[in-house]
Write a structure and sequence with these properties.
Layout (H helix, E strand, L loop, with lengths): L4 H4 L6 E14 L3 E7 L7 E6 L5 H6 L5 E10 L7 E12 L15 H6 L8 H23 L3 E2 L5 E2 L11 E2 L26 E3 L4 H11 L1 E9 L12 E10 L3 H22 L1 H10 L4 H10 L3 E4 H9 L17 H11 L4 E7 L15 E9 L3 E8 L4 H10 L8 H8 L5 E7 H9 L20
Parallel strand pairs: 3-5, 6-10, 12-13
Antiparallel strand pairs: 1-2, 1-4, 2-3, 4-5, 7-9, 8-9, 10-11, 11-16, 13-14, 14-15, 15-16
Helix pairs in contact: 4-6, 4-7, 4-13, 6-8
The structure holds adenosine-5'-triphosphate (ATP) and manganese (II) ion (MN).
Amino acid sequence: MRTKVKDLLKSKPGQEVTAKGWVRTKRGNKNIAFIALNDGSTINNIQIVVETANFSEELLKKITTGACIAATGNLVESVGSGQAVEIQATDITLYGEANPDTYPLQKKGHSMEFLRTIAHLRPRTNTFGAVLRIRHAMAFAIHKYFNDKRFVYLHTPIITASDCEGAGEMFQVTTLDLNNPPRKENGQIDYSQDFFGRQTSLTVSGQLEGELGAMALGEIYTFGPTFRAENSNTPRHLAEFWMIEPEMAFYDITDNMELAEDFIKSLVRYALENCMDDMKFLNDMFDKELIARLEGVVKTDFVRLTYTEGIKILEESGEKFEYPVSWGVDLQSEHERYLVEKHFKKPVIMTDYPKDIKAFYMKQNDDGKTVRGMDVLFPKIGEIIGGSERESSLEKLEARISELNMGRETLEWYLDTRRFGSAPHSGFGLGFERLLLFVTGMSNIRDVIPFPRTPKSAEF
Ligand code: ATP
Ligand code: MN
């Protein structure tokens, strides 16, 4: 029976144990070898002590960095510093060799850029082990948070015929022969012959279907992959990312803000309480202020600010921005970060945006100019959450849809929520990888997802 390294390191010495994992390093001399073994259960390695006389030279030669072995022996108190216990090996099985001339993860200290080119092997590094364990813990904490609040996990579709954000940044899904697609008389492609009998894409958000769920189950959330064909090669955008989208009946925008703030804080708290080994490693290696920043956020009240107030602060800041600001412009991350990092030095929830820069479904304010959107802005990240109170009036929603020249045919089912038993409701979307950027202190979103998809890159 194999015991995980995480458990071995907490076990009492004086028993026979077996560890299985990948060799991080092997050092020593003619008589004795020390193998640092890692099995992914923790950032820490277990040390295997090998008296070379007891094993064949042939076997020992093959135990190199990256090789996979099982080691059985006595768990004893360690005399060396750095670990409480170690295994005095009596038996070693070699599962898989890793040729030192070709295994790419020999020495430590590879650049993040290089590691991206070997994303199939990078989970074996300390950094990606830590990030991927934290990613798992955060996913679990998200389900736990909503389950404790009795939200229903609603699985919204991935293939869709509607464009939720109206931004036209969708990946098309088709089985038509792209070299010779069927055409209508007017020359346009005849999608009635496509797999679904219509034009379809990968979803940019589960929100519209989420709203259907909220109008029946009260409070729901989705947690799934979303796809955006936006050609933005930034450290904060992926073409395929995961989003958490709660949607709640009977919540107004204030309730929505309170939920968003409590949600993020409780996730950060969960990370601090459950991922300390990994976070300490990331704190030491990448971002010396990581843990302090996370502890700060948990204790801080987020600033609440209208877009109009925010613009005023930016205009009066005297700061030179790459993109100039004035009322009506969409905020760039440089503006968001100025407010959060320089002006307030705390997370900000910004509300009441000009309607022209926000999606059609947001509740219109009485001023005729703004809508009840709310974005949560974070240090180092900029926008981490985007949400709103939704327009619940059928007439206003219909007016907005035609004002924007949106294809109504694909939205009739959505309008039914306003036609039958409409209710005030709100929701938001948290980008899972943006959250992970914050919690891990990584600076590029490509390094918090196992296999990133970005423009011109879909390997592995
Ligand atoms: P941004 O202005 O940063 O592109 P957005 O306004 O397009 O964000 P929303 O449409 O409101 O974002 O999506 C909700 C959340 O999803 C965002 O707050 C962000 O956390 C995340 N998100 C959006 N686009 C991406 C992306 N391309 N990659 C990763 N996360 C994203
Ligand atoms: Mn975007």
